[in-house]
Design brief:
The structure holds two protein chains of two kinds.
Chain A: H1 5-13, E1 24-28, E2 31-35, H2 39-48, E3 60-63, H3 73-88, E4 93-94, H4 103-109, E5 118-121, E6 135-138, H5 141-150, E7 152-156, E8 160-166, H6 175-186, E9 195-199, H7 201-204, H8 208-216, E10 225-227, H9 232-238, E11 259-264, E12 271-273, E13 281-283, H10 284-287, E14 294-297, H11 299-302, H12 305-315, E15 325-328, H13 333-341, H14 344-350, E16 354-355, E17 376-379, E18 395-398, H15 401-410, H16 416-419
Parallel strand pairs in A: 2-3, 2-5, 3-4, 5-6, 8-9, 8-11, 9-10, 14-15, 14-17, 15-16, 17-18
Antiparallel strand pairs in A: 1-7, 12-13
Helix pairs in contact in A: 2-5, 6-8, 12-14, 12-15
Chain B: E1 2-9, H1 16-19, H2 30-34, H3 45-48, E2 54-57, H4 69-77, E3 81-84, H5 89-98, E4 102-104, H6 106-111, E5 117-121, E6 126-129, E7 134-137, H7 143-150, H8 154-162
Parallel strand pairs in B: 1-2, 2-3, 3-4
Antiparallel strand pairs in B: 1-5, 5-6, 6-7
Classes of the chains: A alpha/beta, B alpha/beta.
Chain lengths: ~425, ~160
Amino acid sequence: MGMTITEKILAKHSSKSLVEPGQIIECEVGIVLGNDITAPIAINEFEKLDVKDVFDRDKIVLVPDHFTPNKDIKSAQQVRQIREFARKYNIKHFYETGRAGIEHAFLPEQGIVTAGDCVVGADSHTCAYGALGAFSTGVGSTDMAGTMITGKTWFKVPHSMKFIYYGKLNKWVYGKDLILYTIGKIGVEGARYRAMEFTGEVISSLPMEQRLTMCNMAIEAGAKSGIIEPDKITEEYLKNRSKRKPIFYFSDKDSKYVEQVEIDTSKIEPQVSFPHLPENAKKVSEASGIEIDQVFIGSCTNGWLSDLRIAAEILKGRKISPNVRCIVIPSTPEIYKQALKEGLIEIFINADAVFSTPTCGPCLGGHMGILAEGERAVSTSNRNFVGRMGHPESEVYLASPAVAAASAITGRITSPEEVL
Amino acid sequence: MVLRGKCWKFGDNIDTDVIIPARYLNTTNPNELALHVMEDADKEFVKKASKGDIIIGGNNFGCGSSREHAPIAIKGFGIACVIAKSFARIFFRNAINIGLPIIESSEFVDESDEGDEMEIITDEGIIKNISKQKEYKVREFPQFLQEIIDNGGLMNWIRKVKL
């Protein structure tokens, strides 16, 4: 019997020739990641065991990105704890504010993660790296601590679920719309414990940044991981980035899928997920007219350079509605620099948007744009749970950067078609 | 061990943002986190609930963020156990790793109401709804997970088995 790409990577990292869904295995982990919210607990747990060293100083990645530049004294204390830990154990991949980007954009961009890797990260959106052809999943802090000591962790081999996207992609429809539509179709636990494998002609021509957006949100369907078989686009992306040699794995033709979902993308319009679950995806036309107070363009899901270019294309020469605050945050310092070179930042500022240094900030209601009671936001991030971006009585509508930018101009949820 | 308490019932897809909102994630202190447990699902929860009580959830309990602060806040408050129809996978791992008792039982969740008095006999894997005079046998964990649970969590298991 054949194996899926996920099973093959897990077999390789557990030194087995074959693994099957449901089997519990122990894997060697290539990269273990933590941020300023999750790493402090991991460090506390690590220190309880009184071990002398980490398993490998080159394989631990610490990225303070959530409450940075630090928003208050307590957050600063947390980052100080990480900084001191990194110094004590001479951790190679510790990135200080100013050098750090949002982890799930920064690690692929810098080539710290690559195809064929087995990655765990104490952050649920770690599943993003599946876009590179890696097995990558979110864990908690104690799992991170255990992995920092042993270099290994256990997994139940997930069942794989195959998604086939075919047809043409409509104007103003992106990877973000595909994943919102998909979560709308299967629900927030539609892929619980499973690996979502994204395939089909549409995926084959989808640029890497949009693939990363899709895999990033696999967790929002409850999945353990999202993954895309590597191809020319992957090869091109990893070239000149990957710090280690990528290894390409492919699903066998006779590999088993617990479920197969076919999606005709020609029927998909730009999507908007209504509060308070990502599965509440509707066509933008069904949302038009909903008045908003804030727009956020950024996060590990949609703060890529291509996202900023789309937003700038729409905002160029226009003004944001006087009733709206628009916050634009590039995911990494590299993206920031490129946006500066291309004149995108000027476009945003001229349109009356805020442009900030990289941070997760508003996505999780951390800082840099918290919502007041009763306020409504369109956000390019990944979650619209109760209180996600601020007051428990506020509302978040998830959408692509195109819909977000168009909505910022009119002050209500708007299709990009309407403003261009 | 016998756990006894009153149950507090929540619906499907209780996410870790409502269990412990991100505005409180600038600390790792279990006592501080416990002050805000379930705050965005039920603002009055910490005033109403008592140590030793039990949280009941529907499907996909603990979905969303990987923040271990969620089970830590629940455990820190003194909640004895979370019983749900199903758990999101990261929350499931985190609860096992930190030694917060969790039980999956759709039957129990469907047949219990908020305020019911519960008893859990952990060694026998039995939950009793005393108010409704019903008894349920709990499904066993895979042996490997039971080993982590019996050792009181992942770090103790690593100390014993891996070092």
